[in-house]
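Quick one:
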Amino acid sequence: MAQTAEPVGDPCRLYLVTPTTADATFADTLARALDAGDVAAVQLRLKEADDDVWRRAIDALRPVAQSRGVAFLLNDRADLVPGTGCDGAHVGQTDMAAPEARRLLGADLMLGVTCHDSRDLAMQAGEAGADYVAFGAFFPTATKEAPTRADPALLAWWAELMELPCVAIGGITAENCAPLVQAGANFLAVVGAVWQHPDGPAAGVRAMNAAIAAAR
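Output:
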C-alpha cells in the first residue's frame, strides 16, 4: 500500500467525497481540485456500480490522489481496498458493519464510520477500530437523504473528550462551515460545495479552505 496523508489531526482540513457519477474520466477534474489547495482525503462514492466500474474508477483516480499525498478511501467497499492499493474505506450504519470492515482492512488500513448524531454509535465505532467517526447531517443536503440532523455541540463534546478524529458532513459550504470548525471538527466532508461550485471545483476547494482558515 502506498503510504499517504492520513485524515488525522488538527487543524480542520477538507475531505472530498466524489459525486456518484465519478468514473475514469473524472481524473482530470479531480486533479484540478486537488491542485487548488489543501485536501486531506478523497472518498470515492459509486452507488449501485458493479465491481468493474469500481476497479476502473479506482485505477484512474487513486494515483491522482495518492501522488499528491491525499488519502484515497472507498465508500462501503472495504472488500476492494486491500487488492487495489487504496488507503481505506468508509462505511455507513446500513452498509458493512464496522468490525467486519476492520477485519477486511486489517490493522493498517484506514476505517471511517458514519455515526449520524449518535454518541453511542461513535463510541461503538471507536471500539470496533475506526480511525475516525463522521457526524451529520449538519445542514440540509441534496446529496442523499439524511436520517438525522446533528448539532455542532456534538462535535464540541467529542473533541473535548475523545482523541479519535471526527468528520462533519451534510450540506456543508464555505458560507456555513464556521460553527463546525470552531466546535472542533477535524475534517469537513463536502460534495456539492466543491463539485457544484459555480466557478468550478478548483474554486470550490479554494473557497472552502479560505472559510476554514477564517473560522479558526
